Amino acid sequence: MLDFHLLKALHTAAGPRTLDVRLTLAPGELLAISGPSGAGKTTLLRLLAGLDRPDGGFIQAEKLTWYRAESRQFLPPQQRPLGFVFQDYALFPNMTVHENLAFAATGQPQPARVINDLLDSLELTELADRRPAVLSGGQQQRVALARALARRPRLLLLDEPLSALDLPTRQRLQQVLAEVHRQYELTTILISHDPAEIARLADRVLELDLGQVRRVGPPVAPAAPLLGRVLAVLPGGRLQVQLAGGAVVEIAAPPSRPVVVGEELRFELVG
Amino acid sequence: MPPDYWQTLRLTLALAACTTALLLGLGLPLAYALAYGRSRFKPLAEAVVSLPLVLPPTVIGFYLLVAFSDSSALGRFLINKLGVSLNFTFPGILVGSLVYSLPFMVQPLQAGFGQVPRSLREAAYTLGKSRGTTLWRVLLPNMRPALLNGLVLTFAHTLGEFGVVLMIGGSLPGTTRVASIAIYDEVQSLHYAQANAYALTLLGVAFVILVALYWFTKRDAARLS
After folding, report:
1. Domain count, chain A
2. pLDDT over 90 (residue B120)
3. Domain identity same for A29 and A61
């Protein structure tokens, strides 16, 4: 579906670095990108969308070349069939929800049906005549998603779409996103910092740091916290702990405070 | 009431209206290029646009007077090849006004373009919209206060123009004698009551225009947020 190798100079807090990512996405895949700020996550998304120009490499989307450095090919963002959801949603304040979608759907076959389908499946019908400014964050996010889908893209790019939302809204929208991804047969790339969100949604995760790929692979599920009772304090900052199931394990003592025998501890397994 | 009060007023308003309309057409592309362009020469262009703010109007008027006369190559081309003589004519003071009021149109528009979040423009691009469609449907509707500001300031500023018009146009009643020059002429002839009629009119018009501007700006801001 999407095959790319992208190079771009990055200006990070640690000095100049080069973003260098080579990846192939299968059709229908949902890839999460994570990493500390300044890692190049947003830059990578913008390069794919054509909003910034790479310094080198290529982007091949099925048979269509979006970018190729050697042959100086560069398809402007207008001609790349993708949907982009911005971190600040970027809804047009001068248009109602319906007008935002209609603006996106002009030029599509049967625009009225496309709009109504999207309003319906993202539960926006009742908000259709409102302007973005009066909507909640979660509602704005759904409009942004619907608008990005109005062009019937094959590829959906989302820049931290849920990071600004409270937990219940975020969990509900994760479900919406998963449904939309399946229903519209999309290949999706999503930037996220939330390991639980990544584990829930993504087929693969790309971990970036200072422009370099640290890891590409299946998401790691965050461990559930374990509960145990301290049996003994051992030398070298170790503890002997009995888990709720009865098993006895040895763990590192928390560095922040002293622990007494008999205390209940909540801890996570790392690595 | 001065004898040619209405004639002078009509001329003053015609000059302000023509200047504003033409500067909107010239200023929009210029402000767009200055707001989004990344040329090395941008500071140079910005300086040229802002020059009329700091130069005495007589300097602009003087150079335009020379440029339009047959002592310059441009003037000779205009007069001999095109048959256009600009000095002491309405088109002449119109060109002078365009130069003199340029920053009053371009600067608010440039600031307006700069204030529309970049993501709105980029969102329109990722939705397949051309630059033109994006300008018309997304940028301009979301910078209406800046647009209004540019229009109103250009209009009001042209009403109050004196030095440039006097240098290029002189004071020909019905052709180049605008209200601000008429005031000067009347005072020179010690006709204080007639000068007052013009002065009071300009004061009233300027005040009403500015009140309307701030009222609309406030209402628009409330509507969009």
Report:
1. 2
2. yes
3. yes
Residue A187 is part of a domain; what is its CATH number? 3.40.50.300
Q: Which of A209, A200, A172, A204 is nearest to A188 (CA)?
A: A204
* CB atoms B142 and A93 under 8 Å: yes
Residue A151 touches chain B, beta carbons under 8 Å: yes
Q: Give A175-182's long-range contacts (Cβ < 8 A, gap of 24+).
A: A176/A122, A176/A142, A176/A145, A177/A145, A177/A201, A179/A121, A180/A121, A180/A122, A180/A145, A180/A149, A181/A30, A181/A156
Q: What are phi and psi of A79, to 5 degrees?
A: -100, 5
CB atoms B123 and A90 under 8 Å: yes
Pair (A126, A230) in one structural domain? no
Q: Does residue A201 sit in the same domain as residue A246?
A: no
Residues A33 and A119 in one domain: yes
**Is the pLDDT assigned to residue B223 strictly greater than 80?**
no
Tens-place pLDDT, residues A121-174? 899 999 999 999 999 999 999 999 999 999 999 999 999 988 888 888 888 899
**Which residues constitute the domain of residue A200?**
2-217
pTM of the predicted protein model: 0.83
Cα of A238 to nearest chain B Cα, Å: 52
The reply to whether A187 and A107 lie within a common domain is yes
Which domains does chain B carry? 5-224 (1.10.3720.10)
Rounded mean pLDDT, B139-165: 93
* Residue ranges of chain A with per-residue pLDDT less than 50: 271
Tell me which residue in B126, B224, B225 faces A84 most closely, judged by beta carbons.
B126
A112 and A243 belong to one structural domain: no
Q: Is the pLDDT of residue B224 over 70?
A: no
Best of B122, B127, B135 to disrupt the A interface by mutation (most A CBs within 10 Å)?
B127
The tokens for B48 are 């040229």
Say whether both A22 and A151 belong to one domain: yes
Q: Is the ipTM of this complex over 0.95?
A: no
With 0-12 / 13-18 / 19 or more C-beta atoms within 10 angstroms meaning exposed / middle / buried, residue A23 is: middle
- The 3-state DSSP class for residue B164 equals helix
The whole-number pLDDT of residue A18 equals 94
pLDDT at B173 over 50: yes
CA distance B124 to chain A (A): 8
The stretch B179-198 carries a mean pLDDT of 94
pLDDT score at A27 = 94
